[in-house]
């Protein structure tokens, strides 16, 4: 699952990234209102956490813009405003939930899980490529009817590949969206984890799904779909 966290307080933003990272989410951070608008427009997220105090901007304006850009994206608002009328206004403008600062991370995490369950009951909860099935909510993987045990990071990597089925993704893109690291980071961690996945996903099966794209990176698709 991929989250967008837009938080004005850098310390709190880092805390949230680490907290959700430990729960095996992929987290993109920003405190720039214009970046929020661009990311929601150009990237795929499962949920957005928006701080109403982003500056220089009108937090309600950002909420309105995000909702108009992506009508189905679950949005959770963080706010210092706890009055009833403030909560009603935020919900009426399209937010799915609101958490008042200060808050316990355990409560915030539970609210995120509830929104994700609600938002993924239909299309998108189960992803399939050939005989591979990935349940994004329950975090389960099955290949050819047999369960596949993956580590949290292996699951995130497989999920990213499956969500981009048939598309070539670069190592830099994988590093950025699965490991939350700069795309300039030089590391062979992607190749290492691709090998881990292949041993668990492809080796036991006759059909190989994870393909190497020379000079680019990787893709996942049915073997007979290659050009």
Quick summary:
This protein is an alpha/beta fold and 227 residues long. It has two domains: 2-119, Response regulator (Rossmann fold, 3-Layer(aba) Sandwich), CATH 3.40.50; 126-225, Winged helix-like DNA-binding domain superfamily/Winged helix DNA-binding domain (Arc Repressor Mutant, subunit A), CATH 1.10.10.10.
Describe the structure.
This protein is of the alpha/beta class. It folds into two domains: 2-119, Rossmann fold, CATH 3.40.50; 126-225, Winged helix-like DNA-binding domain superfamily/Winged helix DNA-binding domain (Arc Repressor Mutant, subunit A), CATH 1.10.10. Helix content is 40%, strand content 22%. It has eight helices and twelve strands. It has helices at residues 10-22, 33-42, 59-69, 84-92, 105-119, 152-163, 171-178, 189-201; strands at residues 2-6, 26-30, 47-51, 75-79, 97-100, 126-129, 132-135, 140-143, 146-148, 169-170, 210-213, 217-220. A five-stranded parallel β-sheet has the order 2-1-3-4-5, with helices on both faces. Strands 6-7-8-9 form a four-stranded antiparallel β-sheet, with helices on one face. Helix 2 packs parallel to helix 3. The longest helix has 15 residues, at 105-119.
Summarize the helices and strands and which ones pair or pack.
Blueprint: E1 2-6, H1 10-22, E2 26-30, H2 33-42, E3 47-51, H3 59-69, E4 75-79, H4 84-92, E5 97-100, H5 105-119, E6 126-129, E7 132-135, E8 140-143, E9 146-148, H6 152-163, E10 169-170, H7 171-178, H8 189-201, E11 210-213, E12 217-220
Parallel strand pairs: 1-2, 1-3, 3-4, 4-5
Antiparallel strand pairs: 6-7, 7-8, 8-9, 10-12, 11-12
């Amino acid at each position: 699952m991929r989250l967008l966290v837009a938080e004005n307080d850098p310390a709190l933003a880092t805390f949230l990234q680490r907290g959700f990272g430990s729960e095996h989410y992929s987290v993109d951070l920003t405190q720039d209102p214009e970046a929020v608008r661009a990311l929601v427009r150009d990237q795929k997220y499962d949920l957005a956490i928006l701080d109403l105090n982003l500056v220089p901007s009108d937090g309600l304006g950002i909420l309105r813009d995000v909702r108009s850009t992506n009508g189905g994206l679950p949005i959770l608002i963080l706010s210092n405003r706890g009055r009833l009328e403030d909560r009603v206004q935020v919900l009426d403008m399209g937010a799915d939930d609101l958490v008042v600062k200060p808050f316990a991370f355990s409560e915030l995490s539970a609210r995120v899980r509830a929104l994700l369950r609600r938002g993924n009951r239909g299309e998108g909860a189960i992803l399939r490529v050939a005989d591979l099935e990935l349940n994004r909510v329950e975090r389960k993987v099955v290949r050819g009817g047999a369960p596949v045990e993956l580590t949290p990071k292996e699951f995130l990597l497989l999920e990213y590949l499956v969500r981009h089925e048939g598309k070539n993704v670069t190592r830099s893109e994988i590093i950025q969206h699965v490991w939350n690291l700069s795309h300039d980071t030089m590391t062979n961690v992607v190749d290492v984890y691709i090998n881990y996945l292949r041993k668990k996903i492809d080796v036991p099966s006759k059909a190989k799904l994870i393909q190497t794209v020379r000079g680019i990176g990787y893709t996942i698709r049915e073997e007979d779909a290659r050009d």
